[in-house]
């Protein structure tokens, strides 16, 4: 610690001396150096004299995080312990156990396993609740805290104590960490006799090559292939270079994909395709949703700007910012926004407002108009708008409540505990909806609709204003209750679809979930219809 303060004092003296000898009080550089000196002095004083013992690293991290939070949501400090998570986002691999988890209640629970990775090989199951790690309680720990422990060098081991659905006693599992690699194209195949499908989940290394290979394989195995559905739903982005490579699968060499503009003009760049396309002409439908972001928006925006394919789904996230990392020493980095990117029409799809880290919706009449190559009108800001919009039932209402309360997840955990095996994806059909309803009853599931919430606000407001609406509101509440009794049955098909996808993911991993989802997917069916109707496909791409 003494050595730390000697070094810190020396830094302060050097910075202070530099400020006194080189800069004037009106100079911006002087302000920067002055505030660094103040920050260092404050850090030293608090650590030395605060009434309780402090963790210097934790205190500094709090200050750094607060500083980053004052900027955009994508500028972050990456500590040495966060490096593995950063590697996964950029490379699709990391050192760890190969599982996804989420905090449910007071414990972190395994929500997804990657096939043939350490966690899968050791016998962990989706639904396992981590109650101890190396003999120490995991009660109350956050997902990040648990993941920080589970990641580590290949060959090192960790012992987990698991509370597993269907098991009375706790289960101990010893895992040997490894190099975890997750495919960015988990599934490609045919969704009808002559229409292919490719799913891309992240823009990690070789994404363009993998998408290109998937398309080549579809064409080779299906000579009569007459269209492709390219699924970018839920794809949060990744490497800009791979966005260029993925675009290059469908558009020719030397076409502009994106340009970046920032404060440092020397860093402004334009990114063009470098190779020959795999296929320039095959009809293409690109699926996007509100969780399609960054590189996904570049690719979908490029397809739209060049009128290369039809976009179908919901408006995308709205992230038009470029991040670069800078080394800070001690294996730490800062990932900061250095520019905005612009797609071929020269529009930027960046949302300008955020609330709780999420983009705020921008009305169309406040977005600037640009033109595609065919002259179609497209808008900037707030994400990419699809050419064909389809409302998702899970975005609101009772389905959203079932998902957020993890009731489908918990029911499937119980189902798997009672069913060691199920039929292959192509043959499996969930047929025990009454059993699911009984499960909800056992869990005392109560769903409060948006209408009920608004009604309660109206009751409070009317009461404060001296207006007696209680009798009227009670009558409306009874109508709502009657409607809610039928809502589960009204959404039976959508609920079964969610259950089937969750079951498929447990037995057949990510590939099985994607494959199962194709069967009842309204957007897939609409995409097939569009490709099978050439006149409509051309009309969409030529509408002014």
Automatic annotation (TrEMBL):
<dbReference type="GO" id="GO:0004175">
    <property type="term" value="F:endopeptidase activity"/>
</dbReference>
<dbReference type="GO" id="GO:0006508">
    <property type="term" value="P:proteolysis"/>
</dbReference>
<comment type="similarity">
    <text>Belongs to the peptidase S41A family.</text>
</comment>
<dbReference type="InterPro" id="IPR029045">
    <property type="entry name" value="ClpP/crotonase-like_dom_sf"/>
</dbReference>
<dbReference type="InterPro" id="IPR036034">
    <property type="entry name" value="PDZ_sf"/>
</dbReference>
<dbReference type="GO" id="GO:0008236">
    <property type="term" value="F:serine-type peptidase activity"/>
</dbReference>
<feature type="coiled-coil region">
    <location>
        <begin position="466"/>
        <end position="501"/>
    </location>
</feature>
<dbReference type="InterPro" id="IPR004447">
    <property type="entry name" value="Peptidase_S41A"/>
</dbReference>
<dbReference type="InterPro" id="IPR001478">
    <property type="entry name" value="PDZ"/>
</dbReference>
<feature type="domain" description="PDZ">
    <location>
        <begin position="90"/>
        <end position="151"/>
    </location>
</feature>
<dbReference type="Pfam" id="PF17820">
    <property type="entry name" value="PDZ_6"/>
</dbReference>
<dbReference type="InterPro" id="IPR005151">
    <property type="entry name" value="Tail-specific_protease"/>
</dbReference>
<dbReference type="GO" id="GO:0030288">
    <property type="term" value="C:outer membrane-bounded periplasmic space"/>
</dbReference>
<keyword id="KW-0720">Serine protease</keyword>
<dbReference type="InterPro" id="IPR041489">
    <property type="entry name" value="PDZ_6"/>
</dbReference>
<dbReference type="Pfam" id="PF03572">
    <property type="entry name" value="Peptidase_S41"/>
</dbReference>
<dbReference type="GO" id="GO:0007165">
    <property type="term" value="P:signal transduction"/>
</dbReference>
<keyword id="KW-0645">Protease</keyword>
<keyword id="KW-0378">Hydrolase</keyword>
<protein>
    <submittedName>
        <fullName>Carboxyl-terminal protease</fullName>
    </submittedName>
</protein>
<keyword id="KW-0175">Coiled coil</keyword>
